[in-house]
Specification:
The chain has 13 helices and five strands. The protein is an alpha/beta fold.
Length: about 350
């Protein structure tokens, strides 16, 4: 087990700055962009946030009578004392968090952000290092600090390898095409990217959807083991989640047009639009890459491949293809596209 001391030193943090090609883009070109500073992703494989999501996933799966979450790395090799600490942690999450949503519950959003900020610490109480006092509730701090050695010894090495493999797979294309994709998405949504770098926490388990985004600050969590997020889809998932942070103008425009027509505001239309848009923007980039690399087949966007439109969004798809696609093709204005969509609802 002595190798774990060395392992912790390099496994604790992975922060990769992306989107700025190594020699092609300068800070000045970012400032001068009409869409504001283009985003620089920071992709992290952080220990505490992975532990947090693993415990949450196990609690939810246990509640639903299912097995371990994807990538949980369940093991039968824990010692009795390790098992006791691990079971206590899962039980605590079951009692306090299993019925709360990672995306919508303020407590869990704040906890997730806090754990990400302390990923370089070996413990969260500040006992060994005062700056590592994460300010969490005493019981939760005790639970996480007790579960941490168990997680480090068993699940974490496997989870971190999966996270790093996912990051290594998506990074090259983001470095090459990231600025172009970012400019295009900002242009479509007629908005600006946030000034801050977009933190992406790559975890073995994220949530039922495989990824989610929280705002203020804009942070993304993506599962490295979810089969929906692999291969070419990794690029689309990354930019889809980031787009959730800049798509507010679309949502506001839909709301405005529906109110003017005294129509009910469709709750998920803006989200279907973001899925559709990201897929259409990513598709030619991936197709060009596959053609130059090995003559791969046509890329199928996430929402089509996962049949999201067949789950209640089929009418939205028809509207998007009829009215939003002309806007993406430069044959209609943003306002006209949204107005036509709202009129046809």
């Amino acid at each position: 087990m002595r190798h774990l001391t060395v392992l912790r030193a390099w496994l604790t943090l992975l922060a990769v700055a992306l989107l700025l090609p190594a020699a092609a883009a300068s800070a000045e070109s970012q400032v001068d962009s009409p869409y504001g500073p283009l985003p620089v992703f920071e992709l992290h494989s952080g220990f505490w946030i992975n532990l947090h999501h693993t415990l949450y996933g196990l609690a939810r799966q246990s509640r639903d009578g299912r097995g371990s979450p994807s990538g949980s790395g369940a093991t039968t090799h824990r010692t009795p004392s390790e098992q006791l600490a691990w079971d206590a942690a899962v039980s605590y999450y079951a009692a306090n968090y299993q019925d709360k949503d990672l995306l919508f519950n303020t407590e869990l959003i704040l906890l997730k952000n806090q754990l990400g900020d302390f990923e370089q610490c070996d413990e969260l109480s500040g006992t060994k290092k005062k700056t590592c006092d994460a300010g969490l509730p005493a019981k939760l701090t005790h639970i996480l600090d007790a579960a941490a050695p168990v997680y480090r010894a068993h699940e974490w090495p496997e989870h971190d390898r999966a996270n790093r493999k996912w990051i290594a797979g998506v990074s090259p294309l983001v470095r090459v095409k990231g600025v172009e994709l970012s400019e295009r998405l900002a242009e479509i949504y007629q908005t600006r990217w946030p000034k801050e770098r977009i933190r992406v926490d790559v975890c073995a388990f994220a949530n039922y959807a495989g990824a989610y985004t929280t705002l203020d600050p804009l942070r993304v969590v993506i599962s490295s083991t979810d089969p929906r997020n692999q291969g070419d889809s990794a690029l689309e998932v990354l930019f889809h989640e980031a787009s959730n942070g800049i798509a507010e103008p679309v949502q506001l425009a839909i709301n405005r047009e529906c109110r003017q027509r005294d129509k009910a505001i469709p709750r998920d239309l803006w989200h279907a639009l973001v899925f559709y848009t990201t897929g259409e923007v990513i598709k030619p980039v991936v197709n060009a890459e596959n053609t130059s690399a090995d003559g791969g087949g046509e890329y199928m966007p996430y929402a089509f491949r996962e049949r999201l439109y067949q789950r209640g969004w089929d009418d939205y798809l028809k509207l998007l293809e009829r009215f939003w696609q002309p806007y993406l093709d430069g044959k209609a204005t943003f306002d006209d596209a949204i107005a036509h969509i709202a009129s046809a609802l």
